[in-house]
Each structure stands twice: as structure tokens, then as C-alpha cells.
Amino acid sequence: MNSNERLTRRQLLGVTVTTAAGLAGVAAVAKAQTAPAAFPHLDEKDPQAAALHYVHDVKLVDPKKSPTFKPGQHCANCLQITGKDGDTWRPCNIFPKKLVNANGWCSVWAKKPGTA
Length: 116
Description:
The chain is mainly α. Helix content is 26%, strand content 5%.
């Protein structure tokens, strides 16, 4: 590389700032496209949901079909749920890219530490 082909400090700074801004923009778009709010609600008839006896309303759990169910269990106090406490529909590790009802239940329920 000869001296005529070198970048000046000002040019290098400009390229660096432009590249950083472009990467930040791409990351923001990618994050927005996979934001949990954009996920669909889990359908109780979904094959995986049905196999795990998922219901949107814990009051509808059939104890004969789900003998592991105990009163007080629901998605909001399950280890698998993620997202913001208090939201009605939240992501769940068991059902990727779908939202479960915080008042729901499935047979994979496991007590979240620190919950009643």
C-alpha cells in the first residue's frame, strides 16, 4: 500500500461511525421482528399443547387427564415462563415463539423459585 492509498484519520473515523450505526440499525430491526409481542397465542389444539394438556384457563384443567396438577399451579408461577410479570400473555420455554396465558397450565409446570 503506498502513501496515496492510506485513509486519513477523518476518513477512518467516518467509516467506523457509519459502520457502527449500520450494525445498530440492523440489530434493532432483527430484534423488532422477533419481539415476543409479535408471537401468536398458543392454540390449545396445537399438537404439542394438547400432548402436554395445556389450557388457557387453569380452572379448566381436568384432574383425571392431568393427575400431576395441584391447586395454585399456573403458568405465571412456573419456571418455564418468561417475559414481564403481570402480562397476561407471555413467552414460554416449552412453546418457542408462542405466547401462553399467565392463567394457563400444562403438565410441564415446575415451581418458579421465590413464588408462592
